[in-house]
Design brief:
The protein has 16 helices and 24 strands.
Length: about 750
């Protein structure tokens, strides 16, 4: 396809898509309307059945009342019926106000007993209330009638025959009829109340109409109009009325009996009871078809109007967009070309850098495996890409790497592993530094592993550490030599004194030996005694007896001092292997203070406040000694700058204490402090405020590397100019974020 013809197919596709979408929408609307009609019809059917159930319940209650009254009559006494039955009927009417009239009519049609005393002795009026049950058993329901006995109101009558054998010990033919009548308005109230309850449960509540029809199709009740009577729905061809009176239940879409509209009608018959006569009425509940579909059709009209209003301007916009798309297509092609160039550059860059890159889809499957990864692990890209990362044959500490991957996936944050051991068959172990980063993609979360071989770097770092240690030892050498020279001098002086004293004492002993010999041979002894006394006075024997023990004690003290210095120097220079272990920091600090004595004793007093029960700390003791030494030397230099030219001394205070899950070392001095402008730079490599040749700027940088990177601790500084400085070192008892120490363990 040429560039000039690009996007020319879009208008035609737009028409086709619009037509298809319109067809789908119309089909969907049709289906939805059918669903809406079906659902509403079922609701109306359910409403009609609910009303029918309530009417049926009313009838069942009346049937029960008839049986109850029929059972009471014998107890009242047949012979006393004219006198007492009326009162019984009155009591029942008061208990059940639904009854408009209760009475007993004999077989001649005369009222024998009644709730209305004025009716006794009169004709029952409508003979249909008596004759249908003449000689029959059970209860019958009379059609609704205009009743003269109830002030001319419309009533529904229930009748049951009374025979003499109904009383114990008596038998005989039919005697009369028990008649109860309820006002038809009570029935309408049941229908109205039921409809209110039904409306609360229905979604279609507005515009509901209802009708109650008898078997012949005459409307008895129509939306609260009692005994409309003049309308016969069956004769008008209303199917719902025919089906309801025939005992069916359902719903139907039909023409309204009076209004020229379609209505959706739910219908149901009065349920048939096994032990009672059936009231062949039907219940109709209906709503206008337009009421059901009106809201959605109104919405369709609105959507159609606005759709057309929007559609035509879209054509204009489409033509303009096509023009823009052609222009943007060229830009897109250029961008794609540039993107491809970037991809190529990325591949070239990844192929040239020393670090390797591995990308994991969903933190599990290898998606990117660079050439450096092939060289590092000895696994080709074809063998790695698409495979689970954890299943690759990489001989390193998988638990540490897997834990780091899980942390990145969970926290969506970068995780660094400073020292991961990689083993290779037939080769010495290599050390890798890994950086694991989250990468959010359209398909989820990827993880990128960037790693580099730091074996040579660690070797250089070790050499640098050794050089720093040797430099420190070199700086301390003169001081240590001086510290050793002082006791050596007075030990030498004492030895010379002891040598002379030994000679003098030997002379005195010779005189005493001569005296002893004279005494044994019997020679005169006075002269020998005088010579002994003269020799003792000459050598001042009493002085020697007093000073020789002191000289010996001083010599022992000097030797102990030398031994202590040598031992401290040895412990500082060779604290143990390079592996981490649980160490006593208090002892290490005391050793470092001892070997650095000559650095601070001329300018400062040393105060140590070391907590006796300080817990052992898991660390590499050599680097920690170096950190403490560097800070002590810096403190001594800072104090020296302040007291220079005076006879005053400053103070260095070292304190330890347990804090939380770690140990805190505080080293304070009374030097000149660190200006705030350079406080953030003091841990930078090669930064120093000392004159050229006196400082390299590596001491605090190494201290930070040892504390933070190797041990997962913290090192902070508090300082005020002309007040002093405090370095605060926090070391965890068991570092959690120092992979190098964890591996060493």
């Amino acid at each position: 396809m040429t560039k000039s013809n690009r996007y020319r197919w879009i208008p035609f596709n737009m028409v086709a898509v619009t037509a298809v979408a319109g067809g789908i929408v119309l089909f969907g609307i049709s289906k939805f309307e059918s669903y809406l009609v079906d659902r509403t019809g079922r609701e109306l059917q359910w409403a009609a059945m609910e009303i029918a159930e309530k009417i049926d319940l009313l009838l069942v209650e009346r049937y029960g009342d008839m049986k109850l009254i029929q059972g009471i009559l014998p107890e009242a006494g047949y012979e006393a019926r004219e006198k007492h039955w009326g009162q019984h009927f009155k009591n029942i009417q008061e208990a059940y106000p639904i009854y408009a009239w209760i009475g007993f009519v004999d077989k001649a049609g005369r009222v024998v007993a009644s709730t209305d005393p004025a009716a006794v002795g009169k004709e029952a009026g409508n003979a249909s209330a008596v004759r249908p049950v003449d000689g029959k058993r059970g209860i019958t329901i009379q059609e609704i009638q205009h009743d003269d006995l109830v002030e001319g109101q419309w009533t529904l009558s229930f009748a049951t025959p009374v025979t003499l054998h109904a009383w114990p010990g008596r038998s005989g033919p039919f005697e009369g009829t028990l008649v109860t009548r309820i006002r038809f308005s009570e029935l309408d109230e049941v229908v109205t109340r039921s409809l209110r309850e039904v409306k609360k449960k229905m979604e279609s509540r507005e515009g509901l109409e209802y009708q109650v029809v008898n078997k012949q199709g005459q409307v008895l009740i129509e939306s609260r109009h009692l005994l409309e009577g003049t309308t016969n729905l069956i004769k008008l061809g209303v199917k719902s009325a025919e089906r309801a009176t025939a005992g069916e239940a359902g719903f139907i879409l039909e023409q309204h009996a009076r209004r020229p509209v379609e209505v959706l009608t739910g219908y149901a018959p009065i349920p048939e009871q096994k032990d009672f006569p059936k009231l062949e009425w039907g219940i109709l509940v209906q709503v206008d078809h337009q009421t059901v579909l009106g809201p959605i059709r109104s919405l369709i009209q609105t959507v159609t109007f606005w759709g057309m209003a929007i559609f035509f301007p879209l054509w204009v916009l489409l033509l303009w967009t096509m023009h823009r798309l052609r222009a943007e297509w060229h830009q897109t092609e250029a961008a794609q070309q540039a993107s491809q160039e970037l991809v190529n550059q990325k591949r070239t860059l990844l192929a040239t850098v020393e670090a390797f890159f591995i990308q994991l889809n969903d933190a599990t499957v290898v998606a990117e495996w660079t050439n450096q990864a092939e060289r590092t692990f000895g696994i080709t890209a074809d063998a790695a890409i698409g495979k689970p990362f954890g299943g690759l044959a990489i001989a390193w500490d998988w638990p540490i790497v897997s834990e780091a991957i899980a942390q990145v996936a969970q926290n969506r944050a970068v995780v660094r592993l400073n020292k991961v051991v990689l083993s290779k068959v037939g080769e010495r172990s290599r050390y890798l530094k890994l950086t694991l980063s989250p990468l959010k993609t359209s398909s989820g979360l990827d993880i990128v592993l960037m790693g580099e071989d730091i074996t040579e770097y660690l070797a250089l770092e070790h050499d640098l550490s050794q050089a720093q240690k040797l430099e420190s030892l070199g700086q301390l050498a003169a001081g240590v030599a001086h510290e050793i020279n002082t006791p050596t001098q007075f030990v030498g002086d004492n030895l010379r004194f002891l040598s002379d004293a030994f000679t003098d004492i030997g002379t005195v002993l010779d005189r005493h030996h001569t005296l002893l010999t004279s005494a044994k041979t019997g020679l005169p002894q006075q002269e020998a005694i005088e010579r002994c006394e003269d020799e003792a006075r000459r050598v001042d024997l009493e002085y020697l007896q007093e000073e020789v023990p002191k000289a010996i004690a001083q010599s022992f003290e000097g030797v102990e001092r030398i031994t202590k210095i040598v031992r401290a120097m040895k412990e500082f220079a060779h604290p143990g292997g390079e592996e981490a272990a649980y160490e006593d920091l208090n002892k290490a600090i005391q050793t470092t203070v001892e070997v650095s004595r000559n650095e601070w004793k001329y300018v400062a007093e040393m105060t140590m406040d070391l907590t006796p029960d300080l817990p052992p700390v898991f660390c590499q003791l050599g680097p920690i000694n170096q950190v403490v030494l560097n800070i002590i030397v810096n403190a001594a230099h800072a104090i020296g700058d302040v007291v220079k030219g005076t006879k005053q001394k400053g103070r260095i205070t070292i304190a330890t204490r347990p804090v939380g899950d770690g140990v805190e070392i505080r080293i304070s001095d009374t030097g000149g402090g660190i200006p705030e402008t350079i406080r953030e730079k003091i841990f930078d490599p090669f930064f120093t405020t000392k004159p050229v040749g006196k400082g390299t700027g590596q001491g605090l940088a190494i201290a930070r590397s040892v504390v933070v990177d190797k041990h997962g601790g913290r090192i902070n500084v508090e300082s005020q100019v002309d007040q002093g400085t405090t370095f605060i070192i926090h070391l965890p008892v068991k570092p959690k974020e120092a992979p190098s120490l964890r591996e060493a363990a």
